[in-house]
Structures are given as structure tokens and as C-alpha cells.
TrEMBL record:
Ranges of residues in domain Phosphoribosyltransferase: 48-171
Annotated EC: 2.4.2.7
InterPro entries reported in the protein's UniProt record: PRTase-like (IPR029057), PRTase_dom (IPR000836)
One family name in Pfam for this protein: Pribosyltran
Signal peptide location: none
CDD domains, per database record: PRTases_typeI
Protein name: Adenine phosphoribosyltransferase
Length: 192
């Protein structure tokens, strides 16, 4: 029997997450950052920024969708203005975007992360801090870091509110020493 909720520590903050199935034999403690209010994200953004300040990032990058509030909070807390979102929906202006496949643990279908060519100069040869809300299988962070490498970014840090399960370290490779997360949550395997 899988618990209905899980209490997660996210830096200085404790939140209760619903445990929901993502497959026949796996459940996750779902953290929808948009359900936890503005001050939760502001505080988490400040705590990530405190850690990464000494790496002197020049721009913060995050994947859509739920990376967006994290990118804004961390950017503000670092005293920066510029941030960049790796998009998931191919809009008309993204026809020639740089693209990497992604299949997050929460997604039913494979998707892509897209880096708008019009924003390449924002990351090329610049000190980039990548942030997200959760890193789980590592598929999203891997696609994002690959895109940023292709764009010539100098990736100085990888920050996340939570890391989940045990799959992600293998994917981070050379960047594992640059990772900082405010908390850890388990996966919940169960019989189907
Ligand atoms: O390590 P992974 O297995 O890739 O999972 C992590 C990703 O999953 C979530 O995004 P999701 O794909 O659910 O999309 P959303 O932010 O658009 O809701 C989360 O925001 C991460 O980006
Ligand atoms: N536990 C989780 N909550 C929200 N998004 C996620 N993406 C991967 N794991 C997640």
C-alpha cells in the first residue's frame, strides 16, 4: 500500500505532496510548484541563489513549464534580469530552434526541448546557471545541458528544488559536482 502523501523538506521549507501513480507500478510525490504559492517559490529561489551566487552566473536557464517560476525567482534573487526558457511547444517563431528529445518521468509522450536561435547570444560563452523544479529520470536536465553545450554555454551550476529517486546521477556525468538541490524525495514503486 502506497502512502497518500509525502512530507518533503525543500531547503528551509516543509511541504506535503500528494503521492500519485505515473505508471502501473510506480507512484511519485507530485510537487506542482504553482500550487505552493509565491512565497514558497521566492524562498526556494533565494536559497538556490545563495548557493550559486559565488559561481557568478550571468543568466539563468530553465525548461518550460514548471521551471519558469523557478527561473524567475532565482534570477531575481541573484540580482539579475535576464533569463531564458527552453520551450516545449513549437511555435511559429521556433521553426529553426535547436532541439533535443526529452521524456520526463511525468510525461505520457516524448517531447522536445527547444532553444530559440534568437536567444543564442544570451548563452554563448556566458556563465549559465540551469535550474528546474524537480530532477528525476534526468531526461529533462540531460536535454537541457546538451542544448546549452551545443549553444556554447559555460554551465556553472545545476540547481533544483528537489531530486527524486536514484536515476538522475548517471545522467549528470561531468555536471554532478555542479549540482545543488534543496531536497530529496523517493520514488514509490509498487505491485501493479
Ligand atoms: O528528470 P525528468 O524525468 O526529466 O523529470 C523532471 C521534469 O519533469 C517535470 O516537467 P514535466 O515534463 O512534467 O513538464 P512541465 O514542467 O511542463 O509540467 C519537471 O518540471 C522537470 O522538468
Ligand atoms: N515529483 C515530481 N513532481 C513534479 N514534477 C516532477 N517531475 C518529475 N518528478 C516530479
Amino acid at each position: 500500500m502506497v502512502a497518500e502523501t509525502f512530507d518533503a523538506q525543500v531547503g528551509s521549507q516543509r511541504i506535503t505532496l500528494p503521492v500519485i501513480p505515473v505508471g502501473l507500478d510506480l507512484s511519485i510525490a507530485l510537487m506542482m510548484v504553482i500550487d505552493h504559492g509565491v512565497s514558497f517559490v521566492d524562498t526556494a529561489g533565494r536559497e538556490l541563489a545563495e548557493h550559486f551566487d559565488e559561481m557568478r552566473p550571468e543568466i539563468v536557464v530553465a525548461p518550460a513549464t514548471l521551471g519558469i517560476p523557478i527561473a524567475i525567482a532565482v534570477t531575481r534573487a541573484l540580482g539579475l534580469d535576464d533569463y531564458l526558457i527552453l520551450q516545449k511547444t513549437r511555435k511559429v517563431h521556433l521553426g529553426d530552434a535547436l532541439e533535443e528529445p526529452v521524456h520526463a518521468i511525468t510525461s505520457t509522450n516524448p517531447q522536445s526541448l527547444l532553444l530559440d536561435r534568437a536567444r543564442l547570444a544570451s548563452v554563448a560563452a556566458r556563465r549559465v546557471l540551469f535550474v528546474d523544479d524537480v530532477i528525476s529520470s534526468g531526461s529533462s536536465v540531460k536535454a537541457a545541458l546538451t542544448l546549452l553545450q551545443r549553444a556554447g554555454a559555460d554551465i556553472v551550476g545545476v540547481g533544483s528544488l528537489l531530486v527524486e529517486g536514484e536515476g538522475w546521477p548517471d545522467v549528470l556525468d561531468e555536471y554532478s559536482d555542479r549540482l545543488y538541490a534543496l531536497g530529496r524525495i523517493p520514488l514509490f514503486p509498487h505491485d501493479s
